[in-house]
Amino acid sequence: MTGQTPAALELDDIQRGVLSPRPTPYAATYILFRIDDRAHGRELMRRVSAVVTSAADTTSPLGETWVSVALTFHGLKALGVPREALETFAWEFRQGMAARAAALGDVGESGPENWETPLGTPEVHVVLVALAPDSARLEAAVDRARPAYHALPGITAIWRQDCHALPTETEPFGYRDGISHPAVEGSGFAGSNPLETPLKAGEFVLGYRDELGGVQAPRPEVLGRNGTYVVFRKLHQRVAAFRRYLRDNSTGGEDEELLAAKIMGRWRSGAPLALSPSRDDPGLGADRGRNNAFLYEQDDPMGFTTPGGCHIRRGNPRDAAVAGVPRLHRMIRRGTAYGPPLPEGVLRDDGAERGLMFAFVGAHPGRQFEFVQSEWMNDGVFFGAGDARDPVIGSNDGSGDFTIPQRPLRRRLRALPRFVVTRGGEYCFMPGLNALRWLGDLKD
C-alpha cells in the first residue's frame, strides 16, 4: 500500500508496553490474577486504566518506567464480555497457548502437562507487567499499581515472576540481549536498524492498516482499536548444557567463541557476524547506532558469514526472500532474565531456575508468533535445511544437527540437545486505555 499517508497513531490510547523498547539495564515483574467476582473484575479494569502508562507518556517522573495490563480469553469471559464480541478475536488467542502447544513445539518436557501452575490454565485472567531501569523504580511502579487490585476480595494474585538485568547485562547464555527493535510508522520510537523501512502500524496495533493493506480489530471498535496481542512465555535455559556443548564441539577457546557466534548470529558482546565476521568487536556490540545496521541478501545470501540456520537469522531474515515476505512475520520481542547467573566457567548444572520471560507483541498472532515458532524456529524448509531446528531455542531432541557453511567443507554440529525448556505461557490481549474503561463499565 505504497503512496498512502501513514495514519497518526493515537498514542494516548495505546499502552506504552506495546511500542516502547525496554530500558537497559532493567528490572521487571509479572503478576497474574484470577477474577473470582465479575463486579470486582470490572472495578479492577476501571482502576488500572488510571495506572497504565500510555505510549504518549515519555516523560514519566519515574523515567523509563511503565505498567501494562493484558487479559487472557478466559479473563475477558470472566468480565462478561458479550459472546458476539469474543468471537471477533483471533482464533489462536481464543484457543490459548496450551491448546496450541503441539504446533509451537511445546511437547515432551516442554508440554503443558509440565508447565508451572497456573500457567496455561483457565485460572489466569489478568497479567500485570511493570518494567523500570532499576529495582527501586520498579517497586515504586508496583506500589503505584497496588491500590488498583488491593482490597478487592474478588481479585486473587496467583503467580508472580520477578526479573532483573544480570550483572553482565546479558541473557543467561551470555549474549547481549534486547538489540533488535522494529520501527513502527507513527509511533515516535526509532527502530534499531536504520536500513529497515518502518513497518505499518497495523502489524502491531489493531485498528490500523497493516503490510497487506487490511485493518484488523476485534469488535466493538472501542474494545479492539489501539489494542494488540501479546504472547508471554517463561523459558528455562540450560546454561551448563549449552556451555558443555560448545566446549565439546570446539577445538579451543577462540573456536568456542566463534562457534557460539555462529549458532547465535552474533558474538556474545552483541557484535553481529554480518559486520564483524572473524573476531568479536565489543565496541560495535555496545553501539546501539551500529550493532543492528545490516541486511543479508546482498552481502551474504548463502550464509557464509551469518549461517541461515542461526538463531537471529531465523527469527528475522530481514531482506531475504524466503517463506513469504519477512515483514509479514515481524514482531516486537522483549526478554527479561530471571534467576541467578551461573558463575563463569561452571559446566555443571547447579539446579537453579534461570532463563527468560519473553513477550512477543503483534496484531496477528497466527502469521507472526505462531508462524515464526513453527516454520522458522522448528523447521528449516524455508532456507533449504529440511527439518533442522533452531540451535538455541528449537525443540531439539538430540537427533538434529546444525550446519555452518564454509569453504572448502561445511561444518556440521550433530546431536543438538534441547537447551531451552518452556515452563509455561499465555496468549493475551492488551487493550487500549479507552477499552480498559469500557471493560470497567460493562453491565450484565
Please describe what this structure looks like.
The chain is α+β, with helices and mostly antiparallel strands. It has a domain at 236-424. The protein has 14 helices and ten strands. It has helices at residues 16-19, 38-48, 73-79, 83-86, 91-95, 101-104, 135-149, 221-224, 239-248, 253-264, 282-286, 311-315, 366-377, 433-440; strands spanning 27-35, 66-71, 126-132, 155-164, 228-237, 332-338, 355-362, 400-404, 411-416, 420-430. The strands form three sheets. The chain has a four-stranded antiparallel sheet with strand order 2-3-1-4. The chain has a four-stranded antiparallel sheet with strand order 6-7-5-10. The chain has a two-stranded antiparallel ribbon with strand order 8-9. A hairpin with a 6-residue loop joins strand 8 and strand 9. Helix 2 packs across helix 7 (135-149) and helix 2 (38-48) packs antiparallel against helix 14 (433-440). The protein is globular. It starts with 15 loop residues before the first helix and ends with a helix. The model has no long low-confidence stretch (mean pLDDT 95).
Write the layout of secondary structure elements.
Layout: H1 16-19, E1 27-35, H2 38-48, E2 66-71, H3 73-79, H4 83-86, H5 91-95, H6 101-104, E3 126-132, H7 135-149, E4 155-164, H8 221-224, E5 228-237, H9 239-248, H10 253-264, H11 282-286, H12 311-315, E6 332-338, E7 355-362, H13 366-377, E8 400-404, E9 411-416, E10 420-430, H14 433-440
Antiparallel strand pairs: 1-3, 1-4, 2-3, 5-7, 5-10, 6-7, 8-9
Helix pairs in contact: 2-7, 2-14
